[in-house]
Design brief:
alpha/beta, globular
Length: about 350
């Protein structure tokens, strides 16, 4: 899309068009493959669009992190989906290629509300650029927080919300994660891990390093009971693998991590309590959870799921899966799209 970027200049900080956008899809049978910057709410943000047919349903992926965009890995992980869906990756404010183009200072804050509004502007852009009134919203981990905020704020933009590794409540999820990892370490007689966890103490914490320490132990124990994804999934595509791109991605990850956790435990994550947004959804909701997920507990997500009302909803528990995606998670997502979401699009 670098060569077609002028067609991509659409939204101002108010989300209003400067001029009629150049449509990407003059024919439903036409393939689409674009990448480039789009002005979204005052800054240029990186979007990629790939699909075999413009007439296919559109999926807008909301990546996790918040500094871990899927753009470098999307073809490797989701490439086979391009025959049936138009796939949209968006590098969020402070992440990936968006960070490269609009590098924030360390004291430039991120907020959930700001990023929610960015995501809504992206969805509106896709309406005009792809000529489709609604898209399928898919969010994982941090993206499940942002995706829920978007779904609650503007349900009319989306066919459905598909949440994977669904976060529910920061304090509840963190306390549960700490307790479960500690119990596993104790059961395994893993003295070094028990000692380090004891030194951290119970969350919430005021030291931003503590979450990263716990996350390393959580991954260690999840790896013992889950199936690893294919190694090629996490090899960035050549465009994103240059020395400069990799350095920028690392810097973006550091920036977003501090915004997420906060220097004193007061970042965006500390404010997450999804039930406070209300438990009525005006669009279908489908949750996919790894049975072995220690960071976003399936029982916590299930209790939240049971509390919500939606026109359609389902909860899928994936065996041998943890917080990070593997092939079993992708297979579960695909079945939901084909068996449960597709009938709603007719």
């Amino acid at each position: 899309m670098r060569k077609t970027c002028l067609a991509f200049l659409l939204f101002s900080s108010l989300g209003l068009a400067h001029a009629a956008p150049a449509p990407a899809c003059p024919s439903p049978a036409q393939p689409v493959r674009e990448q480039g910057y789009v002005p979204i709410n005052g800054i240029e943000q990186w979007i990629t669009i790939t699909g075999a047919r413009c007439g296919n349903p559109v999926i807008l992926f909301i990546h996790g992190g918040p500094g871990n965009p899927l753009s470098p890995f999307a073809d490797a992980i989701y490439g086979s989906w391009q025959q049936d869906y138009t796939l949209v990756q968006w590098d969020q404010r402070g992440a990936g290629m968006t960070y490269t183009q609009q590098r924030p200072t360390e004291d430039t804050p991120l907020s959930l509300e700001q990023m929610r509004d960015d995501g809504i502007a992206v969805a509106r852009y896709l309406q005009q650029h792809l000529g489709q009134q609604k898209v399928i919203l898919m969010g994982s981990s941090w993206g499940s927080i942002l995706g829920t905020y978007m779904a609650k704020a503007r349900p009319e933009l989306f066919h459905a919300y598909v949440g994977t590794a669904q976060v529910v409540d920061a304090q509840q999820n963190m306390a549960d994660m700490y307790g479960r990892v500690l119990a596993l370490a104790q059961a395994a007689n893993d003295g070094p891990t028990v000692d380090k966890l004891a030194a951290l103490g119970l969350p919430p914490w005021r030291d931003p390093r503590n979450f990263g320490i716990l996350r390393r132990f959580d991954r260690k124990y999840e790896a013992l009971v889950t199936d690893a994804p294919p190694k090629h999934w996490w090899q960035p595509a050549p465009f994103y693998a240059t020395p400069q791109a990799l350095a920028d991605a690392e810097a973006a990850d550091d920036y977003s991590y501090i915004q997420f956790i906060g220097m004193r435990g007061d970042g965006m994550f500390s404010k997450v309590a999804l039930p406070a947004l209300g438990t009525r959804f005006e669009l279908p909701v489908f949750l996919v959870m790894g049975e072995e997920d220690l960071l976003t507990s399936a029982p916590i997500a299930r209790a939240y799921f049971d509390s919500i009302t939606a026109p359609h909803k389902s909860f899928t528990l994936v065996k041998r899966a943890g917080h990070d995606p593997n092939q079993a998670v992708l297979d579960a997502q695909w079945r939901i799209l084909r068996e449960q979401v597709a009938p709603l699009l007719r």
